[in-house]
Amino acid sequence: MTHTIANRLQAVHARIAQAALRAGRDPATITLVAVTKTHAPALIAEAIAAGVHDLGENRVQEAAAKIAVLAAAHPGLRWHLIGHLQRNKARLAAELFAMIHSVDSLRLAEALSRHVDVGAGRLPILLQVNVSGEASKEGFDLPGGVANQADLAALLPEVERILALPGLEVRGLMTIAPIVADQAQARPVFRALRELRDELARRFPQANWAELSMGMTDDFEAAIAEGATIVRVGRAIFGEREG
Ligand SMILES: *Cc1c(COP(=O)(O)O)cnc(C)c1O
Fold it and tell me: What is the pLDDT of residue 84?
């Protein structure tokens, strides 16, 4: 079992490196977040033993239980929240996570900012944006990307207000691409997120827009080709999820 996780992890790192080199990028500029949702602490511990430091969960309560089991024995882990966050869990999320990828409204950002102990530093966040227009996807709505002038005009003042919140530090953007038959079909979605990032960096140069969290098991090579700096990979490391 240990070998399975370690071997799969090695294979994922090799695929990340190949995709980066094909794009003329340094593989060291891409962070792998191992997505551990639905998996038990014992299995997660195998991934940690194989060298994983960044772990992704999409539910606060589920993550809290795992962090309680794993944190003491493994100091220095970074937990990333990648799933939709309800405002009533903002306080716990601000305590537990090193980065929140799924900030999808001004009201959620305000709730998070209120619960950050600024003495310990601002909480790093990403703004999740739905650039594909798929109805099932969370995020600020910007179907079609920056060409969508009306939705962009609505988004900009919200971004400006989020940047002014004292507890948060925006680091970039996150998106989830639709499921497609061939990952090349996902590239326009990833490209749209990068173009939006470039536009926001032009308009709000005081902020740090470096991170693009995009790409999962079935499409991370396409995301890396379009500039992903964080890929979120579950099944390629842990196998298929049950249920
Ligand atoms: C589950 C999940 C992932 C990982 O998906 P895999 O297909 O298992 O790699 C990545 N990002 C988000 C937001 C997820 O919910």
Answer: 97
CA 220 to ligand 1: nearest atom? 9
Tell me the CATH class for 5-238.
Answer: alpha beta
**Cα–ligand 1 centroid distance for 223 (angstroms):** 13
Judge if the beta carbon of residue 173 lies within 6 A of ligand 1: no
Please indicate whether residue 176, judged by its CB atom, sits closer than 6 Å to ligand 1.
Answer: yes
Are 177 and 186 in contact by the 8 Å Cβ rule? The answer is yes
Single-letter amino acid, residue 89:
K
* Integer Cα distance of 185 and 221 in angstroms: 12
Residue type, 220: F
Centre of ligand 1 to C-alpha 216, Å, is: 6
User: Does ligand 1 come within 6 angstroms of the Cβ of 143?
Assistant: no
The answer to whether 195 touches 163, Cβ cutoff 8 Å, is: no
| Tens of pLDDT, residues 3-55 | 699 999 999 999 999 999 999 999 999 999 999 999 999 999 999 999 999 99
Phi-psi region of 144 (alpha: psi -120 to 50; beta: other; left: phi over 0): left
Q: How far is CA 202 from CA 18, 156, 217, in A?
A: 30, 12, 31
Ligand 1 mean position to 60 CA, how many Å? 15
Predicted pLDDT of residue 128: 98
Q: Residue 194's pLDDT band (boundaries 50, 70, 90)?
A: very high
Domain segments of the chain as ranges: 5-238
Residues 47 and 53 sit within 8 Å (Cβ to Cβ): no
Rounded Cα gap, residues 57 and 232, in angstroms: 10
